[in-house]
């Protein structure tokens, strides 16, 4: 369908290499190579898991160009052989995907000769094979039924991610997204090797999560009876999901079913008591509320099997507690300050998660503003604005916590286009701003603290984010969240370096990203065009000096 | 489905009045009023045309809320009666819609009593009745199967548009859009009373229009054999369309089938010879090319029945002609300067259109830079940057041409988010910019020149565009083109004034626009959420001071 004019330009077919993220080691040639009409993929794996076989069969349908053309004399690639280099037992891709993030094996080695010999893909895990299959599929175009590449031979030796945690966060509380949207998003994530879905499932605005132990929360807190995630829906989604139940702030909606646990519920003006409407947060100083919250976390953690479980901790509003008579009475009764009460609250609620073997995740305020007693297992989500205070991430790291770094000025998809609050005389004009408040995204990395590095040469800082800045911050408003995910996917797989070690460059990346967009569309993801289609056919020719 | 929580807030249901554009005269009450389960619409029109009957039956399915609630005691509206106040013959809505833009009758008067008496809609044309039905449909919500409004009684006396030409332009050459997308867009336009579709059908990048007399143009110039508009497709689309075949610039693609007519085809660097790649424009000084172009316009005008036919004239590159040996030879042979040759070219090509009774439309350069001999019928598209040189529109008007004013800084949907040219070191960062170059939109007005007014109090200038600026220029990147169309729809219907004569205000407009978004989604248009759904339920409560 697309690109039928490709034939006209066959002599000058650009070597776009629609690889995204680009492998960290890569050598290619200039040979044409055809995929055999009887091309086979051999799985040299003992008792291969079903999801690996599914991934293999998908690979065979992933070529996408279709047009008339030459290529009749190019060598033919007969087969691809998959080999596992580790020992038994062989686990499924799914099982490998939910191993501790620091213990996952995602690397692979791929060789595609252009002399008619078979291609070989090897890895230490089925997950690595899956990453390699994804890369393999990105080499191929169809031209009048001939599936070909023009960059043979290909050698990728040990392509491994720069960062083990490469995440995407979706908020389903500000606005609801149906399960089908989420599953499509999970699929698209896998196409670009993003490996963690951070599901910000509830917030002050709605509570769509149906918990069998607390059915009233969704009954009264969801936007409607149909805008909920049932336990069956959750099972459908959670294999990749790190869940979040924010607390003690961002919980106003709980007042719809449990008003006794919420301070300053819908207090006015909301801006005095919360960062966004509606106001309302858990009465953290109340023993009953502590118990309630611990039980809620336990119930949620039981339906959300991910190892990581975020308990929130962001944007706690103290003015709310100052004017809440119940909280003041609770503090008086316990003799605690609010900070001490918060520590009790956190120890109790994290303790409930620890009993279930979960690793708690908190936002950076819990470490930087509140100095709580936290297990060193705890992962801290840093949302530092890189330019203003990149030291925040360093401060968290200095406290020896693992860190997920999600600088809001680069990776929040809802920033940069205005805000959704009405009648705000300051800052970006709010009215009809057209932000999509639900699509807050973190596309982040996680490393043990000692490896974390905030210097300008580190991937989280200036050089690495140049590409992201252009792709996500300024341009993302038109890309939809998929495209931004694509871009960060490359940054966090590669560490923002190309296979030759040079910094990734937007001019080089644009045609690759545009090419990926067509593959996304072909697979049912409605990513928008980045350029006229004319440029996709002639990627070099839409640069200014061409 | 949506808004089931509405019941909770029934006592305080906001009077959002999801009217867009808001009528120019409007008085409402605070009464609840139910639509009768046996509600009927009576068409008091002699021999009513089929499209009016279709519009009536659609109106009855347009209510959209659905939830449990009270409202049991509200009066019931039994019926709506449609009356035509003009004389016979009664024309169809379609026939009224393609009358000369200055002679269309779109006004209507609507009364919805809240005492159980019938509602009455009257107009001077079926098109006016259609506009009124659209407004009528926007009053109704469903609550547990009860269709109601809470602003009865309603009186709208002579709601007429401020500007007769309220347009939306779609470029189908930079990127192709299938017929189904275009038809959905036409539907959405009608929901907000936009009345002109400017179809920028071909450009330098591709030629998707299949012309029976020039089949080679699409055969060789379309992106693919399937990315074309056949004569049948065109018939499906054109009833609302004003077509454009740009010339003599923006024609590089014609070289694929008629290289003899194109100067500097794909010359390098393109930026010397064109505003965007690829370079190439008609050899306007060549008699053969003049004949070819006149024949092409004739062929296109025969399949595109709109009264207005744009012949382009923008961004003509003179450097191209200086280095083109053929053009220099043609000029020498005729003894003409390039400007004189352009005049000959324009007279001949416009003459071909005049023979078919078409009104030519040109971009402002043809009047302001080239000073051609143009019929005073000619409509000039002004794309002035309002802040920098609003006088351009005034200059065109001063030359006594009709003007369609489409300031690019407010109404071009592809501006403001970056550009799609790669490797541009200046201006907005181009790489991975994420603009959608196909969606250039004009949302414009057309008035006889003497009525045109560029002073700050005029709708095209500062006060009126405040709302547009916020809605379109800054926010549009996330709204998709539908939302921007919605916003301009209100500006150009109302003249940016509310029913009480005050300037429209973004804070007031936001909840109405957000409400409209849900109606759009309900009808299958994927407009994005402007705020959390929580705000749609409680529109006043997401303002900063609430």
UniProtKB/TrEMBL annotation, chains A, B:
InterPro entries in UniProt: Beta_hexosaminidase_sua/sub, GH, Glyco_hydro_20_cat, Hex-like_dom2, HEX_eukaryotic_N
This chain's source organism reads Mycena rosella (Pink bonnet)
Which range is the signal sequence, renumbered to this chain? 1-18
Give the top-rank taxon of the lineage listed in the UniProt record for this protein: Eukaryota
**Family classification:** Belongs to the glycosyl hydrolase 20 family.
**GO molecular-function terms, A-Z:** beta-N-acetylhexosaminidase activity
> Upper lineage ranks?
Eukaryota, Fungi, Dikarya, Basidiomycota, Agaricomycotina
Its recorded name reads Beta-hexosaminidase
Provide the Beta-hexosaminidase eukaryotic type N-terminal domain boundaries.
19-138
EC number(s) on file: 3.2.1.52
One CC-aspect GO term: membrane
Ranges for the Glycoside hydrolase family 20 catalytic domain?
163-426
Residues at the catalytic site: 315
């Amino acid at each position: 369908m697309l690109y039928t004019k490709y034939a006209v330009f066959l002599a000058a077919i650009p070597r776009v290499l629609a690889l995204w993220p680009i492998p960290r080691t890569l050598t290619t040639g200039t040979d044409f190579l055809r995929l055999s009409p009887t091309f086979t993929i051999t799985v040299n794996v003992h008792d291969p898991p079903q999801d690996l076989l599914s991934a293999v069969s998908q690979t065979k349908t992933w070529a996408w160009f279709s047009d008339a053309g030459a290529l009749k004399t190019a060598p033919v690639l007969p087969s691809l052989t998959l080999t596992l280099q580790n020992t038994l037992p062989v686990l499924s891709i799914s099982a490998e995907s939910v191993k501790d993030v620091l213990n996952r094996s995602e690397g692979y080695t791929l060789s595609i000769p252009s002399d008619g010999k078979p291609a070989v893909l090897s890895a230490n895990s089925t997950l690595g094979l899956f990453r390699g299959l994804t890369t393999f599929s990105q080499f191929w175009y169809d031209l009048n039924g001939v599936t070909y590449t023009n960059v043979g031979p290909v050698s990728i030796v040990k392509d491994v991610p720069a960062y083990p945690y490469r995440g995407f966060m979706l908020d389903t509380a500000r606005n609801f997204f149906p399960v089908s949207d989420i599953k499509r998003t999970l699929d698209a994530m896998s196409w670009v090797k993003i490996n963690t879905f951070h599901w910000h499932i509830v917030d002050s605005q709605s509570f769509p999560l149906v918990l069998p132990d607390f059915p009233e929360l969704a009954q009264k807190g969801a936007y409607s009876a149909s805008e909920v995630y049932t336990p069956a829906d959750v099972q459908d989604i959670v294999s990749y999901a790190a869940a979040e139940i924010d607390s003690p702030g961002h919980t106003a909606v709980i007042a719809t079913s449990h008003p006794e646990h919420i301070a300053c519920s819908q207090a006015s003006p909301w801006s005095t008591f919360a960062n966004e409407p509606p106001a309302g947060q858990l009465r953290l100083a109340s023993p009953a509320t502590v118990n309630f919250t611990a039980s809620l976390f336990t119930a949620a953690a039981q339906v959300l099997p991910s190892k990581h479980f975020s308990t929130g901790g962001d944007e706690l509003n103290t003015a709310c507690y100052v004017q809440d008579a119940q909280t003041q009475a609770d503090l008086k009764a316990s003799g605690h300050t609010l900070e001490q009460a918060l520590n009790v609250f956190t120890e109790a609620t994290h303790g409930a998660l620890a009993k279930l073997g979960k690793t708690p995740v908190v936002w950076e305020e819990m470490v930087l503003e509140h100095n709580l007693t936290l297990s060193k297992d705890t992962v801290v989500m840093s949302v530092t604005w890189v330019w203003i205070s990149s030291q925040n991430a360093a401060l968290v790291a200095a406290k020896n916590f693992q860190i997920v770094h999600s600088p809001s000025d680069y990776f929040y998809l809802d920033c940069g286009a205005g805000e959704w609050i009405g009648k705000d005389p300051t800052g970006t004009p709010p009215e009809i701003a057209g932000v999509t408040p639900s699509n807050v995204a973190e596309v982040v990395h996680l490393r043990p603290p000692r490896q974390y590095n905030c210097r300008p040469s580190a991937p989280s800082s200036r050089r690495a984010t140049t590409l992201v800045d252009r792709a996500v911050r300024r341009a993302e408003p038109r890309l939809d969240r998929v495209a931004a995910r694509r871009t960060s996917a490359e940054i966090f797989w590669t560490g923002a370096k190309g296979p030759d070690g040079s910094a990734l460059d937007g001019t080089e990346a644009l045609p690759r990203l545009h090419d990926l967009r067509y593959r996304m569309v072909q697979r049912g993801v409605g990513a928008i065009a980045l350029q006229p289609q004319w440029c996709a056919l002639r990627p070099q020719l839409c640069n200014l000096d061409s």
